[in-house]
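Re: the 437-residue chain
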Amino acid sequence: MSETVVSATAPANDPTFENVWDEIVWRGLVHVSTDTEALRALLAGDPITYYCGFDPTAPSLHLGNLVQLLLMRRLQLAGHRPLGLVGGSTGLIGDPRPSAERTLNTKETVTEWVGYLRSQVERFLSFDGDSAARIVNNLDWTAPLSAIDFLREIGKHYRVGTMLKKDAVAARLNSEAGISYTEFSYQILQGMDYLELHRQYGCVLQTGGSDQWGNLTSGTDLIHRVEGVHVHAIGTPLITNSDGTKFGKSEGNAIWLDAAMCSPYRMYQFWLNTDDADVISRLKVFTFLTRAEIEEYERLVQDEPFRRAAQKRLALEVTTFVHGADAASAVIAASDALFGQGDLSTLDAATLRSALEELPGAAVETGTPVVQALVQTGLVASLSEARRAIAQGGVTLDGDRVDDDAVTVTGTLPGGVSVLRRGKKTLAGLVVLPAGR
């Protein structure tokens, strides 16, 4: 298998699996679920309606949400009908965190974020054909409901003893922070969502993270009590790195799906830096590559790890799925050019700027000597070290080798920037300002 990939794989399920259930199990997407045999039969039969909810606790979804979006897409590709729920009401309450109470956002903020999340969810599902997706907002059925009606029609079906045993609630009860009645009630609201979607659309499956299992089963239990039928839930595993650290964090910052909050270049580099021990499991969860293709990459990781073919394919696939083929091509071109395998001057200004934001950098005036810029960016510790590095032929400016101490920075690359490189892999970005600024 060549490590040079022309384009990403179009979303499709692997036909070598008899059932989509078998595929999602092989991909490691099922950590916990209701009756597995019943689920396997259900997903192999006539089209069903299923849902996943996304609360507007931020103005963008993140990589944890991407796991759910990919699972929804896989089930849709198998012919089932997805409901993408955006939590206009549950976002006002807040799902209990294990450690402390959430800060409640204003209604105006939540409404604004609902719009952002809705547009993001819509990007990952198909709204055409027999399995067309539908977006719903739980504020539509909770807002008209009075507190008395809520307690009479929904609350009476819940037992406090059972609610106290839910993992998220139990963790908070044992903490110094405790838990408010507001967050304690969250599981009832999520259970009501499932009941409403079951009544309106015949929804019989909910997916979510395994840390949400108590909330997922809140809905399955409620429907069984009220409607007398069994419905299902799938809890996906919480993705962690092989060393046990939290996945999706980069220097303390979440990897968001909004390009304004996490550039396509940063997204690409995040996946490109995946550890060998994690890359195969990431390919299973986050790409539509077939089992045969992933097994071949597994061989390449073992036999030729220095080529990082699996990481390159992973970065291409996910960046394309999240930001589109054009953005993925642009960031790959930028990544190659920064390390001397392409022409920096041909890059578009926005991509180049976003790439340089991930590097050490400095703002300098046009005409600044390269030796000084090397010091300002931290690539060297002193002017004398900068001169030695130039004399040894180890410094390039905008892709050209610097042979003279007198060379100055001009910012001729798109967007008025320049790129310094010392050696093969040590880079810095320069924002070049007009002289006198």
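DSSP finds 20 helices and 13 strands in the chain.
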